[in-house]
Design brief:
It is a single chain. Helix content is 62%, strand content 11%.
């Protein structure tokens, strides 16, 4: 029966027993109005005194649980909002820091570019590039004795002919201040750096030619390059004196060692 189920659900076991007793009376073939009235009175009494209070308590508990759930959800939402606000604040601080750094970098970069791109610096850079370009086409000859009224272009042409090279020699002249006992080198230019490279590959042949053994041809190096070359040559001489069983020579700015074979 529905009333029994409700009583059992709300823990009213006494009411269940009472209703079962009343129901047994109704199972008879003839039921008087008085018995029916007593049964209904008992049913309403149970509903009013046991079931309805319990249902009211249950409703109150449900409302309390719902209120607690709503409060928890509000707290969660507030914590989420606080977290978002904190993240926004941190992001804002990072953005300000980055913007400040970018402004500082931009300012420094602008000043550097303005300084680097000034007409004076541009002219100096172009001049330096032009010097390097000219220097790559130039050679310097050492060990050619100076003579009164000499024609250095003709002298250089003759030296190059010993190497089977006949380039067009341009801007040929002595360099340095003239002094007693000092032989000034000769500088000249050719058509391209390739011609310079070709001559430098053959210039060692002059050591084997009578009358040209003391003549030396080198690239037109900068002051820094000349200092570095002098140090390299000095180190080369020391290695040759300290180890005469091996051969040492300079290749691409480095000293290279080659062990001599027993037949050498």
């Amino acid at each position: 029966m529905l009333i029994n189920d409700m009583c059992r659900l709300f823990g009213a076991n006494g009411a269940v027993q009472l209703m079962n007793g009343k129901a047994s009376t109704l199972n008879k073939s003839s039921v008087s109005k008085a018995q029916m009235a007593e049964f209904l009175y008992s049913a309403f009494y149970i509903l009013e005194n046991w079931c309805l209070p319990l249902m009211s308590d249950a409703t109150t508990q449900i409302k309390e649980l719902q209120s607690e759930k709503i409060a928890d959800q509000k707290q969660i939402i507030k914590l989420q909002q606080d977290l978002i606000a904190k993240k926004d604040e941190e992001l804002g601080n990072v953005t300000k820091t980055v913007e400040a750094g970018m402004k500082s970098y931009s300012s420094v970069l602008q000043q550097s570019c303005t300084s680097a791109l000034s007409p004076k610096n541009i002219a100096a850079a172009v001049k330096e590039v032009a010097k390097d370009e000219d220097r790559s086409k130039e050679l310097v000859v050492f060990g050619v004795a100076e003579e009164e009224g000499e024609r250095v272009t003709s002298t250089v042409t003759t030296i190059l002919e010993q190497l089977d090279e006949k380039p067009q020699v341009k801007q040929c002249r002595r360099i340095g201040q003239q002094s007693n006992g000092a032989v000034r080198p000769i500088i000249f230019s050719v058509r391209s750096p390739d011609v310079v490279h070709q001559i430098l590959k053959k210039c060692k042949q002059l050591r084997e030619i009578e009358g040209y053994r003391n003549i030396y041809i080198s690239p037109n190096r900068t002051r820094e390059e000349r200092i570095a070359r002098q140090k390299l040559v000095s180190e080369l001489k020391k290695k040759r004196l300290g180890d005469q069983k091996s051969r040492y020579f300079i290749r691409k700015g480095e000293i290279v060692k080659v062990a001599q074979s027993p037949e050498d």
